[in-house]
Design a protein that fits this description.
The complex is a heterodimer of chains A (523) and B (247). Chain A has 523 residues and is of the alpha/beta class. Among the domains of chain A are: 1-17 and 54-70 and 127-248 and 341-408, 7-stranded beta/alpha barrel (Alpha-Beta Barrel), CATH 3.20.110; 418-522, immunoglobulin/albumin-binding domain-like (Up-down Bundle), CATH 1.20.1430. Chain A is 48% helix and 8% strand. In chain A, the strands form two sheets. In chain A, strands 1, 2, 3, 8 and 9 form a five-stranded parallel β-sheet that branches. Chain A has a four-stranded mixed β-sheet with strand order 4-5-7-6. In chain A, helix 3 runs antiparallel to helix 4 (100-122), helix 14 packs antiparallel against helix 15 and helix 15 (442-458) packs across helix 18. Chain A starts with a strand and ends in a 13-residue tail after the last helix. The model of chain A has no long low-confidence stretch (mean pLDDT 96). Helix content of chain B is 35%, strand content 24%. In chain B, the strands form two sheets. In chain B, strands 3, 4, 6, 7 and 8 form a five-stranded antiparallel β-sheet that branches. In chain B, strands 1-2-5 form a three-stranded antiparallel β-sheet, with no helix packed on it. In chain B, a hairpin with a 2-residue loop joins strand 1 and strand 2 (101-107). Chain B starts with a helix and ends in a 12-residue tail after the last helix. The chains are: A alpha/beta (523), B alpha+beta (247). Chains A and B meet through helix 1, helix 8, helix 9, helix 12 and helix 14 of A and helix 4, strand 1, strand 2, strand 8 and helix 6 of B.
Chain lengths: 523, 247
């Protein structure tokens, strides 16, 4: 019995660009992801192509991420950031000379030097070209998500807002990739009945869903999560296969928890004195990550042992083999029970899991394709390889997400529920402005376009998630507050006809995402 | 905070702790009620912390660094301004948190609040939860319960009586025997998760059971929720609501 693996990597970061001259701490989130995930992933694709190993997968690049990756200022800052990281690496080799840490310092120095070479020479600063190349070569489906990554189920009261965010995302995607996306990644797999009808107003053909969204759907899914479904509005839905995800994601038993893999938390940014690492950090007087990490997971202990890259690579091969074996077992079990359809395992993963969190994750992915190439009955696919117009079981998925609890608990609880009063009021006021000013020009048009940017940025699901998890919660609160206040200022200025042009110009520089955005897209 | 420590505190300290934890102190609550409510909240917080140890959340956190004081205040943010506590408008919103709970917020314009409150037959402002089996916006919706509002501006979690129903919240004022709806929320739908789980749990066809097993149905989040003790779920609700009786 043949089977297919439908691997989906979701890459997203909130919009963190600043118009100032200095590198900001929050911008290092983007630079770390480029260093640890995006460039290493592109190298994996290149090696596979060179070796003629077949590989196919889908990658969702969120509009905020795409905009930042294409931004010349951020590209220049990443170059500076990388130079300093390389300088730190050279210092580390001197400091650790003759010790076990020296080889590990060299490993990172080589990685960052290779990143510099690829970033400057191969991509000329724009790594989107790399992804575009592999899309054109038939290896990747590049898809998008709603403009600033809102959690759609909590904004179902504003369908025009969701449609507007989708149109902004599609235009943005077209601008950078020269074609419209065929698929949509819903932030956190967040879905509610009716959302498909909004998406179906565009040329998006497929979406990804939480497993229980389909399993507990309006009718019983004939093949569970192992076949696409057609939603009532006609989209194709691929439900997440939990068994595949758990092999990687499970906190206790997932592959990244293996003791031989590199530990994410132990970093010289925390271990060494500030007068040594401080000049290479962007966190003021606070310790933070440098990327130089010398220890392995070891176990649930604070006493960590040195990382051994060779031992980790052996484990990578073992885990890639185990992943494929587990899928094969599932297929054999289905066969034993008389099933003869061709299962499709949909495996969505956060892209930043690979390389950033799980250092060896990109090697695991490479090894997965290498080992799969020797298995005749297995094929990796992109959704666009399927006949999306074919007949699939029609099924209405339920309100669902892949977050803890399976619904909206992460984005709506005692810590973050206060945001919705303000974002809802801002949306009410935004649509009031659209009714009052449906077709403006000049300064007023600029103000309305900026109002749309602020409204979009206020709805990013990153803010309630960061508030809930406590990861830079104060930053998230401040960002949310600033977008709502900026919007409110524009609303009041337009209402009172007292727009401050200088303030507006500065705001356009500060939050200049989607520079071609036309507010009428929301009408 | 243990029961022993809480028992050592005087009533004022207990009330202060309840306010800090945003526990509604209802008339007639005894000292032991307050301690029980606090313990429930602390247990819930502990469970929340444990939930956040999941890898998926750790990875999300890892994207955003850890230096909490290192970020920069957005420079163009209007200075000396906080988010408006009141928008001086009348509105309400209803958001589905999970199949059993929704979050509701509301505001009644202060002039409206004052004018009605002065009225001779004034009985109060109420938050009313409406339900329907069909999504028709203009169709008849049944009242489930009403809660008297003691503040013109607020928010709370409300328990949805049944899954598989459409819900809407109305804010209304009652004057003598006359009710006036001041504002309505949009309509949300609570998915019939329990019924669907029951249906799938009764499957005894080995071929379809193999499909469910291959789909890891028994490991999905709603199935994990079911493992929680029902009593535990009820205990964890700090906003238990009392039914409102008709005058």
């Amino acid at each position: 019995m043949n089977f297919k693996l439908n691997l989906v990597l979701n890459a997203h970061l909130p919009y963190v660009r600043s118009p100032g001259k200095q590198i900001l701490f929050e911008e290092t989130w983007l630079f770390e992801a480029i260093d640890d995930t995006y460039l290493p992933l592109l190298r994996v694709f290149q090696r596979l192509e060179n070796r003629k190993i077949p590989f196919k997968l889908t990658i969702s690049l969120s509009p905020t991420l795409v905009t930042m990756l294409a931004d010349k200022t951020l590209q220049a800052r990443y170059r500076d950031y990388l130079e300093r990281k390389i300088e730190l690496g050279r210092k580390e080799i001197e400091r650790t000379r003759g010790t076990r840490e020296e080889d590990l310092a060299r490993l990172y120095l080589d990685l960052f030097s290779k990143n510099r070479e690829d970033f400057n020479d191969l991509y000329n600063g724009n790594i989107l070209k790399g992804f575009q190349y592999f899309q054109k070569a038939g290896h990747l489906d590049i898809i998008t998500s709603l403009a600033a990554y809102p959690f759609a189920p909590l904004y179902q009261a504003y369908p025009k807002n969701l449609l507007g965010q989708l149109k902004v995302a599609i235009e943005n995607h077209y601008q950078y990739f020269g074609q419209e996306p065929s698929g949509l990644w819903l932030a956190e797999n967040g879905y509610y009945p009716g959302l498909d009808g909004i998406i179906a107003k565009t040329r998006i053909k497929y979406i990804f869903l939480a497993a229980h969204g389909v399993l507990l759907g309006e009718s019983r899914p004939q093949h569970g999560v192992l076949a696409p479904i057609r939603t009532p509005a006609g989209l194709i839905g691929f439900a997440r296969h939990l068994g595949s995800s758990n092999d990687v994601w499970d906190k206790d038993y997932g592959y990244p928890a293996d003791p031989v893999y590199r530990d994410f938390y132990r970093d010289i940014g925390y271990d060494l004195p500030m007068d040594y690492v401080g000049p290479y950090l962007y966190s003021g007087n606070n310790p933070s990550m440098t990327g130089y990490k010398y220890f392995r997971v070891t176990g649930k202990t604070n006493i960590k042992e040195y990382y051994d890259p060779q031992a980790a690579l052996i484990k990578v091969k073992e885990h890639a083999g185990n992943f494929l074996y587990n899928r094969k077992l599932t297929v054999e079990n289905l066969q034993k029970h008389g099933h003869h359809f061709e299962p499709i395992f949909t495996i969505p993963l956060d892209a930043e899991l690979l390389g950033h969190w799980w250092f060896e994750g990109v090697s695991w992915l490479e090894e997965l394709f290498i080992q799969a190439s020797t298995i005749a009955q297995l094929e990796f696919i992109r959704p666009s390889d399927l006949d999306l117009d074919a007949k699939y079981q029609t099924l209405g998925p339920i309100y669902s997400s892949w977050g803890t609890g399976g619904f909206s608990e992460v984005w709506l609880d005692g810590s973050n529920d206060w945001v919705y009063r303000h974002s809802y009021r801002a949306l009410d006021r935004f649509f009031e402005l659209l009714r009052r000013f449906p077709d403006e020009t000049g300064r007023r048009e600029r103000a309305l376009n900026q109002a749309a940017r602020e409204i979009i940025l206020a709805q990013a699901s990153d803010w309630p998630m960061m508030i809930k998890t406590g990861a830079t919660a104060d930053y998230a609160k401040s960002r949310f507050r600033s977008h709502v206040l900026n919007f409110t200022n524009i609303y009041e200025s337009l209402s009172g006809n007292k727009l401050d042009t200088e303030w507006l110009t500065n705001l356009e520089k500060q939050n200049g995402i989607f520079p071609h955005l036309d507010y009428r897209i929301f009408i | 905070m243990t029961v022993t420590r809480l028992n050592e505190l005087d009533d004022k300290s207990l009330e202060a702790l309840c306010q800090k934890e945003e526990i509604d102190i209802l008339p007639g609550m005894s000292r032991s009620d307050l301690i029980a409510a606090l313990i429930e909240v602390y247990e819930e917080e502990e469970k929340e912390k444990q939930k956040l140890h999941s890898l998926i959340i750790q990875i999300e956190r890892s994207k955003f660094g850890f230096a909490d004081d290192a970020w920069t205040q957005p420079s163009e943010m209007p200075k000396d301004r906080e988010l408006q506590e009141s928008y001086e408008d009348t509105y309400c919103g209803l958001l589905l948190r999970d199949p059993d709970w929704a979050f509701c917020f509301w505001e009644i314009k202060s002039i409206t609040w004052q004018n009605y409150a002065k009225h001779g037959g004034f009985k109060g402002f109420f938050l009313q939860l409406m339900e329907n089996q069909t999504p028709e916006i203009n169709g008849p919706m049944n009242t489930t319960y009403r809660i008297m509002l003691d503040s013109r501006l607020g928010s709370r979690y409300i328990q949805l009586p049944k899954q598989g129903y459409y819900y809407q919240v109305e804010i209304l004022v009652v004057l003598a025997t006359e009710r006036t709806v001041l504002t309505q929320s949009s309509i949300i739908y609570s998915p019939p998760v329990q019924d669907r789980i029951n249906e799938l749990s009764r499957v005894n066809d080995p071929a379809y059971l193999a499909i469910l097993e291959a789909s890891n149905f028994f490991e999905t989040e709603p199935m994990k929720r079911l493992e929680q003790n029902q009593q535990d779920i009820e205990k964890s609700n700090p906003y238990r609501l009392s039914e409102w009786s008709e005058e």
